[in-house]
Specification:
elongated, 2 helices, 95 residues, 3 strands, 23% helix, alpha+beta, three-stranded antiparallel sheet
């Protein structure tokens, strides 16, 4: 539930499908933007927000600021994955 792999208390565990479990994974180690679902598009010269839903990659848009792309990802993740969504932490405690 809280993303801590060592927190195996009953209150921190829940049943999840493989797809739900994947939605709850954090930012990959090789990520350079610092946000899940946000990559730099060389072609557009902007930050791209993308999300994978039902095995299909969906582009959410292109943004001048990576924080704006992270907000777009957060909204889509909440919509598609509900309580299993991994939400990017933005500066100032904003989500």
């Amino acid at each position: 539930v809280n993303g801590n792999g060592l927190g195996n208390r009953k209150s921190n565990l829940r049943l999840a499908t493989p797809s739900q479990n994947a939605a709850n994974r954090g930012v990959p180690r090789q990520n350079t933007s610092g946000f899940k679902g946000v990559t730099w598009s060389k072609v557009a010269g902007k930050w791209a927000a993308r999300i994978k839903v039902n095995q299909k990659l969906v582009t959410l848009g292109y943004f001048a600021r990576k924080e704006d792309a992270a907000r777009a990802y957060n909204e889509a993740a909440k919509k598609h994955f509900g309580p299993f969504a991994w939400i990017n932490k933005l500066f100032g405690g904003e989500e």
